[in-house]
Design a protein that fits this description.
Oligomer: single chain
Distance between the termini: 36 Å
Helix content: 10-25%
Number of domains: 1
Largest sheet: 6 strands, mixed
């Protein structure tokens, strides 16, 4: 039997700071471990209501990413509550890729890998 995830933020801590963007995928490093978003990209949506945004902490190994259980579908607003610094980038078009710079901690646009 699969265990329930314990999220870093409780439901009552989620504020309406980035509503109306739709759904997204995010890894447990963000939602369970509470890490900031380190890498984000927007692809063509996979389902109705999908924004196309995919959020990772940037430390996920290929082996980690192979485990479907560590990726969840959330409203973009939820991920914005974990890391409000993503909000100015949420209107970027499909094909956009951003990475947090090590030195400054700021997001920069990068070429799709």
């Amino acid at each position: 039997m699969k265990s329930q995830k314990t999220f870093a933020l409780r439901a009552d801590q989620i504020q309406p700071i980035a509503e109306g963007h739709g759904g997204c995928f995010a890894t447990d490093m963000i939602t369970v471990e509470g890490r900031k978003v380190g890498y984000m990209y927007r692809e063509e949506p996979d389902f109705d209501g999908d924004s196309g945004w995919r959020f990772m902490a940037g430390r996920e190994s290929p082996e980690y990413m192979d485990d479907a259980a560590i990726i969840g579908i959330y409203d973009v607003n939820v991920v914005a509550n974990y890391d409000p610094e993503i909000i100015p980038l949420l209107d970027a078009p499909v094909g956009s890729v951003f990475e947090r710079e090590d030195g400054t901690g700021e997001f920069v646009a990068v070429e799709d890998e």
